[in-house]
Write a structure and sequence with these properties.
Blueprint: H1 2-11, E1 13-14, E2 25-31, E3 36-41, H2 47-50, E4 61-68, H3 69-74, H4 83-91, E5 96-103, E6 111-115, H5 117-130, E7 141-142, E8 151-156, H6 166-176, E9 181-182, H7 189-193
Antiparallel strand pairs: 1-9, 2-3, 2-6, 3-4, 4-5, 5-8, 7-8
Length: 196
């Protein structure tokens, strides 16, 4: 039943709120085959979003993903996935993280999406509000927990579940930014297919 309802809601399109002819900003949608991320040119990020995020001069793009903390930290590859980790992520209340990855250039499998200034600002605000801040108002970095030298994890708001997945987080980002999206989706392909 979950899969059937998920597919139906994935196919229903929430249209873009305003068809602005002046879409001068670019964002990028990409997936590792299961998990969606949003990539944004580093120099276009708002000060509020960029503040407290590690970035290198050589990194021109920052990519944002969201998910279950235990899943992220203990499943660096799909070969590391266990039933317990998957079950806990899908059905139990859990803490979440934002995964930020640094890129020097656009990747060949990224989907470019042109957005207006107002849509871009709302997306930046959504991403910024997803970070959990400490008592000093700073983003909470998990030191030395990234998979490589090009990524990091930060504490985030929300709890992951089968109804609030990494992909539904990205889909909600698009909806709240006024962009075309799925009515709801737990899958990566739902949103990507609307922009291919």
């Amino acid at each position: 039943m979950y899969l059937i309802v998920s597919m139906i809601l994935t196919l229903i399109t929430v249209d873009r709120k305003s068809a602005s002819s002046f879409s001068n900003k670019s964002i990028f949608l990409h997936s590792n085959g299961v998990h969606l991320d949003i990539a944004i040119p580093k120099n276009d990020l708002t000060i509020e979003l960029k503040n407290g995020i590690k970035h290198l001069e050589s990194a021109n793009y920052l990519s944002f993903g969201w998910g279950d903390e235990d899943f992220y930290l203990n499943t660096p590859t799909w070969g590391d996935l266990t039933f317990k980790t998957a079950f806990n992520a899908m059905f139990l209340t859990s803490s979440t993280l934002i995964h930020v990855t640094r890129y020097q250039q656009i990747q060949t499998d990224w989907i470019e999406i042109k957005v207006s200034e107002s849509e871009f600002e709302r997306l930046n605000l959504y991403l910024s509000n997803s970070f959990k801040n400490d008592e000093n108002g700073m983003k909470v970095l998990l030191q030395n927990r990234g998979y490589t030298n090009y990524d990091d994890f930060y504490k985030s708001h929300g709890s992951y579940s089968c109804f609030n997945t990494c992909n539904s987080w990205v889909n909600t980002a698009f909806k709240e930014s006024g962009l075309k999206a799925c009515l709801w989706t737990p899958f990566d392909f739902g949103l990507m297919n609307k922009y291919r």
